[in-house]
Inverse folding.
């Protein structure tokens, strides 16, 4: 069994997370898709999380992420969505007519996994 360790705990917490682009518009394609995949991995490592798998569809994202118990799922998902939204707005705002920092929709789906 793959487990991770903190000072006072041993854990194996994996979550299936899905979130969509604003209005489910098909925005995730080409160069942006490749860059966001790398950006998700580097941002997760900043919070000592590990993205096991990530799949970017044209209008939504599926990821299997391992989150340590010291962080809540909502904190990590908010961090990932917020930082990638800022990145997209700063890099692609003039090319693709994005309005402000509103790239992702407000909610997300999360489910625990048992493997």
């Amino acid at each position: 069994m793959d487990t991770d360790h903190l000072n006072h705990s041993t854990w194996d917490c994996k979550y299936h997370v899905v979130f969509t682009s604003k209005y489910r518009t098909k925005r995730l394609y080409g160069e942006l898709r490749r860059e966001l995949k790398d950006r998700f991995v580097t941002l997760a490592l900043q919070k000592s999380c590990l993205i096991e798998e990530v799949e970017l569809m044209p209008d939504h994202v599926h990821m299997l992420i391992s989150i340590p118990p010291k962080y809540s799922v909502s904190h990590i998902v908010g961090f990932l969505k917020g930082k990638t939204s800022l990145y997209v707005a700063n890099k692609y705002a003039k090319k693709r007519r994005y309005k402000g920092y509103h790239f992702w929709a407000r909610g997300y789906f999360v489910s625990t996994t048992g493997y």
